[in-house]
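Q: Structure for this?
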Amino acid sequence: MLILDCPCCGVSGEETEFHAGGEAHLKRFGPGSSDAEFHDYLFTKENPKGVHLERWRHANGCGKWFLAARDTMTLEVYGTYSAQTTEPPQDIKDKISAKRPGWSWREFS
Amino acid sequence: MKRYSAFAVAREALNYHMGWERAWASPEPKKKYDVIIIGAGGHGLATAYYLGKNFGITNVAVIEKGWLGGGNTGRNTTIIRSNYLQDASAAIYEKARSLYETMSQDLNYNVMFSPRGVIMLAQTEHEVRGYQRTAHANALQGVKTEFISPARVKEIVPIINLSGPRYPVLGGLWQARGGTARHDAVAWGYARACSDMGMHIIQKCEVTGVRQEGGKVVGVDTSRGPIDCDKLGMVVAGNAGHVAGMAGFRLPVESVALQALVSEPIKPCMDCVVMANTVHGYMSQSDKGEMVIGGGTDGFNNYTQRGSFHHAEETVRALIETFPMIARLKMLRQWGGIVDVTGDRSPIIGKAPVEGIFINCGWGTGGFKAIPGSGWGFAELMAKGYSPLTAEFGLDRFHQGRFIDESVAAGVAH
């Protein structure tokens, strides 16, 4: 059972309050992009064994989307942060580095 | 290999049962094999078996990081059926179901295949229409199923409550030739037959890297040293994305936890498999008398082989309405497995972007029933470069937008 802190309303809730929304920080490729880029955007997943950055929605709460850094090997939640960002904040990156030195997820590390 | 038979039991009894040989050998890895299969689960072992049996390729190693059949092969609810909607899926699942029928004789190993019948309950008007459509599709595909009335459902499953306030039973899709089999025995039977053909099953040997030269696979690095190969088959279910990453490509799969649980053993009360997809639950009774219950997947990526408690709770809560008599059963064990789910809920069986690597993954929540068909087709693909059984399931289907959309037939809601 995951415990997540919603950065939008400040409530700390267990996972039945939230809805998982898949990978975070997707870069959209639409009209004009190559087939390969469009395919990767739509289908290929990081699906890492370890640190994962992902989207969540506070479905049974404030209803807003936010992002979370979580470990798929231990289910530890490193932290949650605003969806209006293009990369995880430094303090969360530091927290991950302390637990998993040398981690990387797409271009972040 | 000494054959198993009633005569063998009598012969060994005279010897105080001290003469039984090991079912499979545990050899040291050689420097090179023609084919390496990563993953000694049902699908990997079946692939190796049919490579040897159908194509005479026996210089094969099956590498396993844990123990044989210790992944999803040992964690499923053992249901076998082939009532799928799309032609490509019906073909491979029906091939598998038909191979299960003669598997015990074929392998000389009792896999306890029990064609006890599978009902998929229709509990909404939408499901009624969906399953009627599937029954018509199955008739054209040569898969024997029928859409049955609530009265017939009650006749087959007397313990069912048809008139539940939330989810009344409005009918069912009945496949009389579906059923269950002993999941571990499937892996053990294939392993024994593979070992008998001279193949190497190497357990406790984790693959740590995939070596390539000039865009072609040449071998793998393992925790027991490097091993060379000409062809590499990746059959690692939940870890597919992880192993593909070692070879430098990404997959359209996400790994999530799927749970199952069993009750205390009770007297025989249900002699078929019942699936209730609206409420994310399915149930059968094992030969030991336990009610075996499976549920839905978690919503988030997970590699820990345990799921969230509330999913098990939701499954049981919903099933109690349809089966009121299970309300007072104590649950004995609960466990989870990591399943690799694709966007269209159909597996990926095909060539990987690296020459010489073949991938068989994405079985998601329904891999056990497909084991022999998957192995049959994947072996043909690895040996000849093409298999009619697996042609539609290639990795390129996502690029081409040619999905095999089975999200309805996949059995559990996602």
